[in-house]
Amino acid sequence: MEQPLAVGDKVMLPPLMPCGQCYYCVHYPKHANKCLNPTYYGRYIPFQKPPHLWGGWAEMVYVDLEMFPATKIYRLPDDMTAMLGSLTEPLACCIRALNRAVTADGFHVGDTVVIQGSGPIGVLGLVAAQEMGAGRTIVVGAPEEPRLKICRAMGADATISIDQFKSSQQRIEAVREVVGGFGADLVLECSGHPSAGPEGLEMLRDGGTLVEMGQFTDAGSIDTNWHRICTKDITLLGSWAFTANDIPLGIDMIHRAADRYPWQLIQTQFPLSEAGIVEATQVAMAMRCLKATIVP
Fold first, then answer.
1. Is residue 85 a part of any domain in this protein?
2. In degrees rounded to 5, what are phi and psi of residue 65?
3. Partner of 127 at 20 to 30 A CA spacing, among 78, 120, 186, 251?
4. Is the distance from CB of 87 to CB of 254 less than 8 angstroms?
């Protein structure tokens, strides 16, 4: 429901804005994330275009509702910090992925969930799974410091290090040992590495569900045995980004869970300067932090 904004309100501006008029927006609103004519503040609007303030590592952003009528601005609760607010969009992506599994009858309260990947999406996927009723959560990733340690602090029941269990078979067996012989009910693939998909299939129990949401960029292909999808009788789903309806879910979840998690462990702050941006990029690429956050 639309609400008026006032000067001083804290808001978040999602990077993806569907047009509301294309084939997907009109006929398949649940897949408006695949809009054919999206607006991307901070990405696809060229900075040469006046007034030049289109977001992306900037102190200010210009929002033009006349030029881009599909723009949506979401008001944050008064008691939510801007730092927490910046996590609502990636959290919404995780909520959508899990809701894809719910719709397919592949995720239920009490289920065991394996999260492949211990980066920002993996950790927020862990939070979303727990908040949506997972009975047991297992994170597969690396490095131990700081990422797997943070996952345990955020509530993961178990973590499996790819540095310790170096082969795919070792990791599959480690998951099955934690679960108790069978595989997980649900695997959420958040790593972005092509090899994680076939590995995740084997971490599932027969009849389980795998949601692939980590392949946001094309990291290439890998050989796999599609026969296993059939013989294991699994449900395989893809999930891309979020829709407009997912953002309020992310805001509400992080607001309700504000006191239940050590959120400060997730975000490492860097100043909005040339040196700060360079350092943030280097630290993030070296995985010495979980989420590098640039703050004016």
1. no
2. -75, -25
3. 78
4. yes
CA distances to 28, 95, 212, 255, 259 from 17, rounded to whole Å, are 15, 18, 22, 23, 30
Q: What is the pLDDT of residues 56-99, one digit of tens each?
A: 778 888 888 888 888 889 999 999 999 999 999 999 999 999 99
Q: Supply the range of the domain harboring residue 185.
A: 104-238
* Residue 207 dihedral angles phi and psi, to the nearest 5°: 85, 5
Q: Give the whole-angstrom CA distance, residue 218 versus residue 192.
A: 9
Q: Which of 9, 8, 28 is nearest to 18 (CA)?
A: 28
Indicate if 37 and 153 belong to the same structural domain.
Answer: no
Q: Among residues 65, 72, 82, 63, which one has the least CA distance to residue 33?
A: 72
Dihedral sign for Cα atoms in the order 249, 255, 256, 262 = positive
pTM of this prediction exceeds 0.85: yes
